[in-house]
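pinning this so it doesn't scroll away 📌
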Amino acid sequence: MIVRTLFSGISAGTEMNVFRGSAPQWRTRRDPTTKLFFETTSPDWSYPLAYGYAAVGKVERLGDAAASLGAPPVGALVFTYSPHASFNVVRASDVVVLPALDDPRVGVLSANLNTALNGVLDARPSFGDVVVVSGLGVIGLCLVQLLRRTGVSVVVGVDAIEHRRQLAQRFGAKVVLSPHDGVAEKVRALTGNRGADIVIEVSGATPALNEAIRTVGYNGRVVVMSWYGGTFESLSLSGEFHHNRPRIISSQVGGINPDLGPLWSVDRRKALANELLAQLDLGPLLTHTVPIEDVASAYALVDNGAADLVQCVISYDGAGQ
């Protein structure tokens, strides 16, 4: 089918790693058998590369077999994991029909919300837990809202940007901190020196992983959701990591926590995330909308980390103007 794009979202995490050239696929190739990455002169990616994975649009045309495959009708509002483009050709099985949204731009957050929900499923918070969310970008702010629905006692939000800390408080964070505030010490003071039950690291800043290890309590869980593009000179595995026995969990959206058992699947998670799009307070995350004709300035906003930026949306053909 052909989907005419109305809006697409620029990812400040994964996409910026690709944009800046720090993603491993620019210099390595992943072996499909061993699942290992190897340095190579013929990496997985090369220029030119069409990228992006958060597009909202309307079904423009159906292929001959689309209807029999359960495709949505022409005119349906859908989300696709498609690159930034005015039109995309997609398979019927790859289209997500969006729920009724007051603002269709919210649909570009479908992938982010899927990732955030996966982080909660990997973290498996319990009633009464103290959970720290390190990094209050789109995914971190989605996490704050999701965690408040799980019955945790306290959500602590950590970010260097005041605007994002204010949004976290709006969404239910009981405590907000700057990473320069001595996070591990503040959380110990908050918890009678236990430390956090769970720290979810989603900032993408490599020093934040080190602080997450320091912040979590004995045998606690550090859930790593970031795709780090930098280096790890600041990472210390000789102190708190060795003596406090934290468990570090990689939460990658391509899979589901096996501890959840056979009743959970990626498709079930996607369906739940789609329902949540219409239930959570996501409008405040859409801080900038830029027409496709001025897309270079949109990338500059995200690359330079504008102080009031959370999610930058690209609009097409005057949509939303």
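📌 and the second one:
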Amino acid sequence: MLRSLAALLAAVSIMVASPPGRAQDYPTRPVKIIVPFAVGGPADVYARFLGARLSESMGQPFVIENRPGAGSVTGTDAAAKAAPDGYTLLLMSNAHTVNETLIPNKPYGLMRDFVAVAPINYSDLVLVVNPAVPISTLPELLALVKSQPGKLNYASSGPGTPYHMAGELFKSMAGLDIVHVPYKESSAARTGVLGGQVEMMFDAVPTMNEQAKAGKVKALATTGKTRSPVMPNLPTVSEAGVPGYEAVIWLGLMAPKGTPPAIVNRLNAEIGRIANRPEVRADWAKQGATGMTMPPDEFSRYVADDIAKWEKVIKVSGAKPDQ
């Protein structure tokens, strides 16, 4: 009887010392990363890059599942409803922080239904126009738009995406009347500009750089605070005619609320190690992307601050979810 009692106490002590969601036990099966954007865009590209390296370092497959639609709402809602066990993650971007204001009646709340895991990287955008547009510089584009208010269009991958908000910020700060043409995904928006159905677009530097090199679009300016190392001959929008302008696309990972902190911290550490590898930083730099690292609580504050930033832009610009 004493031996049985001792065995029971030992089992209980092991259970107490080994609560569910122990970081050292995670993962024991494949992890799904939901990407609420189409295949081929920056979010998809970097999700696959990161997933492959997490698979190597953590010993289980990190599987990418693209679920685009409704400006990222469709896939994000699926992630919000997933079990908070660390086996479903959300690849998110500043499209999500914009949507907190732009789409107030979503079935989820970003800060309510998710926990911040880790940032990944950020990239400048580049303003490009179809070669048929009769201008070659940003000042020339500004003059053309002002001479033809409401006649030119800009494409985006949908309301609330970084491409959309970069355009709205541009319109607001430069005092322009350009019509927003939303597509369901970034590849379709890109095709619209390349084919001449839409005159211009803000797109990620890593995605559009090759198209510009091939002469399929004319690149006018990048959107960071300083010139892009990938396109150093291009001025920034700020220095070329719209002082103070800045818009980037950044990416990160979140998990359903209730995901064990030990798992969140483990993922944060692994992602930080990957982002800080010299070869990764060099590879991303060639593509125009810069790695971001911060602990979960700091990343959570960063997300909240970005929500507040875009709330102000949306109110000033009058942007609507169906525009």
